[in-house]
Amino acid sequence: MKFQVNYADRFNNMEPSAIREILKLANGSDIISFAGGLPAPEVFPKGKISWVSAKVLEEYGQSALQYSNTEGLTALRKQIIGRMETKMGVSGLTLDNIAMVSGSQQGLDFVGKIFCNKGDVVFVEKPTYLAAINTFHSYEARIVEIEMDEDGIIIEDLKKKLAIYPEAKFLYTIPDFQNPTGISMPLYRKIQLMDAVRGTSLMIIEDSPYTELRYEGSRTPTLLSLDDEGRVIYLGTFSKILAPGFRLGWMIADKEIISRVIIAKQAADLQPNTLTQYIASEFLDVTDIEEHIKEIIKVYGHRRDVMLKCLEKYMPKEVSWTHPNGGLFLWITFPTNVDSQELLKECIKHKVAFVPGEPFYANEIEKNHCRVNFSFVDDKRLEEGVRNMALAFKEYLAKTS
Prior knowledge:
- The chain is α/β, with parallel strands linked by helices.
- It contains 13 helices and 14 strands.
- Strands 2-9-8-7-6-3-4-5 form an eight-stranded mixed beta sheet, sandwiched between helices.
């Protein structure tokens, strides 16, 4: 008889990542994948990282290969604070306001661990990042969705939900080039959001992995920079501007919250990776990361334009999509009778993959959407993939009509 394993109840709320499952399907095949939020490997600064890594090992090897502080390398945290001040308009930060984490995903996990009791209400955008949904479910939170329009969170719906759930712990938002929709909050909406939560106990989790990847328009202030009450927790990452393999991100918050983050970090993995912190810090010190980001923007902005042109060229008129000003994704909307999970099966036959919209909803699922990524695939395969998607959609309609 097989041994009976008794898992924790909370694990029953967790589902495998839809994106990871689709990536496994597409891995090593001739399928054109628009599924993952993958940076293009050709923009990784391999030569500079190789040189910087050798320099770190030569000059700081004994320290870089040793255990280090839980809160992160002091020099790196100072550099991040400097960039937050100059690029994001955030003032008054000290080392007590920042902790390094193993990618911003770990920061999300710490948010759930520190703040969520079983049954606690948390607000998320509708739709939202599916790994955030899984994380909050793992801590047995009750997820309540807030409606969005083309400018992000609808403030009246937030106020309505706050009136119903005044005890809600936090609002999770990706205000710039949202995952999965690509939508961004303009400044007026960010100000309205901060005004709407004033006088409440609601915290705001500002996830900001794409903010620096803007292809048109002017940068708007972060929610953190608009916060004068200490209610915003900001998540940043090097994954999109340097290398995702570093697994290196940061959390910025009130110093009391950061002190709890450090305790959670000690319990999780003791400390961030020492070597990658040294490499990132040295990279910021001896190279021009702003020039590197400009190169990323040039590549991704071009690919966004190619995908938008191809969608206009090949997709039928009953299909619509967002027009993001930055980030890695856009959101396609099909007629309401389309199930994107079933459409994906048809697309796989045509050697193209995307992420169906369903996993991005916590409660009220809408099946007629999908998320596509434009950063990872070159021009030729972008056009081929969109053309194949359009063909698969037409064949799907013929079968279901």
